[in-house]
Every structure is written in C-alpha cells, then in structure tokens.
Amino acid sequence: MREVDEALREEQLVAAFRRYGKPVGAALVAGLLALAGYLYWDNSVKSEAAVRSEKAMIALDKVQAGQLDAAAKDFEALAKDGPDAMRTLAAMNVAAIFAEQGKADEAVKRFAVISADPKAPKIYRELATVREVTLRYDTMKPDEVVAKLKPIAVPGNAFFGTAGELLAMAYLDSGKPDQAGALFAQIGQDKNVPQSVRVRVRQIASGLGYDGGVDLPSEEASDPAAPAGDQPAAATAQQNKPA
Predict the structure, then answer these.
(1) Do 95 and 166 belong to one domain?
(2) Listed residues 99, 114, 139: the one ending a domain
(3) Number of Cβ atoms within 10 Å of the Cβ of 188
(4) Which of 77, 104, 139 is the last residue in one of the domains?
(5) Least confident of 136-150, 170-184, 200-214
(6) What is the pTM of this model?
(7) How many whole angstroms separate alpha carbon 217 and alpha carbon 209?
(8) Greater confidence, 152 or 34?
(9) What's the CATH code of the domain at 125?
(10) b/e code 24-33 from CB counts within 10 Å (16+ = b)
(11) 197 and 155 co-located in one domain
C-alpha cells in the first residue's frame, strides 16, 4: 500500500509539472528579465543624473570665474533634456546670466517662458514670475503687476516678501495707498520674510501711517542672512516712525 501511495504521488507531481511547469517557468523568466531591466534602467538614470550634475557644477564654476557666455551655453544644453526640475533650473540660470549681462529683454523672455511652463515645478514658475516683473516693472501697468503677483504675494509663500513689496508698489502707483500700506505692514511683521526686506518695507509702511512692526535686537541676532549694511537702515526706520 505504501509503494502504491508513493507511486500515486509521484504520478500526480509529474502530471502537475507537465501541466503547470511551462507557465510557471515562463513567469519566473519574465520576472527575472523585468528585474534585470529595472536594475539597468535605474543604473542608467543614476549615471545620467550624475553626468548632468557634474556638467551643472562646471557651468556654475564658469559663472564664478566670470565666463558667462560659456556658462550660458552649458546651461542651454542642460535645459534641452533631462528631468523637468533639472531643465527648468538650467533655464533659470540662462535667464539669470542674461540679466547679469544687462540683456534685460532676453532675460525677460526666458523668465516668461519658465513662468508659463506647466511642466516646471511651481516654485520655479513663481520665482521666474517675480524675476520677470522685477525686470519689467518700469514698463508694466500697475494692473498687470497686480495680476501677476497677487497669487504669489501671500503669507507663507517663499517669495511673499519680494513679490509683496512689488505688489504694494503697484498699489501705490495705481492710487491705492491704503492697500499698499496694509500690505507693507503685513510684510514688515512677517518674521519669515528676510530681515533686509522687512526693514525696508517698515519705513514705507510708517510713512503711509501703518505699523510695520518693531525691530528687536533678538530678531536681528536670529537672522544671520541679513546683510550687515541693513542695521543702520533699521535704526533709521525706528527714528522715522511716529510716536
């Protein structure tokens, strides 16, 4: 009986192997091929990213060395392919180089393209918008400035200080001092805004009759990014505030 039972089990295993062996083997082979393909793709992506990063560092070194034309060509090449964030960052650097060279019109065009690119990361689109308006402000109508910057000039946004200052100036130019003063005061009281910007807008807010906040020694000490040259301006802001 034992021998018959073992023979029966052996026959069942052989039958199961004949029935399912090929599909299972094919699935295993397909899984191994997929794993190998993924490992190859992952290695290729990392290698390409390393190459792009190295090229970006070389371009930045050229910027620091004053070789702006050569750096612009390098960034132009990086802006043509690769991940969206890398391409956008390269394009931002090209526009910034044009601005540094005094080619404002070309820089404005480049920043405008980035600002309107839905594939670009949001933070880069907003920064490009702020840079575009900064370069074009003197030739723009106040309503245009408001339309572009109002969505960005909100508390909590990384560019609230810069965008808000430009927006408040547009309110002043359009004859809306109350809106301008309130926004200047809001920027001056926001501790997330760089100290240098707060000092400047507090003076303007004070002149418009709004309280932009008080400069405290502890606040200045906690802001290592604030330029040393802004400290006399802060003192002047305090002196100009109404009693």
Answers:
(1) no
(2) 139
(3) 27
(4) 139
(5) 200-214
(6) 0.67
(7) 24
(8) 152
(9) 1.25.40
(10) eeeeeeeeee
(11) yes
User: Which position has the token pair 């970006």?
Assistant: 56
List Cα–Cα distances, 215 to 70, 130, 156, 203, in angstroms: 44, 26, 21, 11
* pLDDT: which is higher, 242 or 58: 58
How big, in percent rounded to 5, are the helix, strand and coil portions of the chain?
A: 75, 0, 25
What's the pLDDT score for residue 188?
92
Average of per-residue pLDDT values in the chain: 79
Same-domain pairing of 180 and 238: yes
Could you list the residue range(s) of the whole structural domain that residue 178 is in?
A: 142-243
Rounded to the nearest 10°, the torsion over CA 227, 231, 237, 243 is: 140
pLDDT band per the 50, 70, 90 thresholds, residue 226? very low
- Nearest to residue 58, comparing CAs of 73, 74, 80, 69? 74
Per-residue confidence band for 34, with pLDDT thresholds at 50, 70 and 90:
low
Tokens of 124: 């880069």
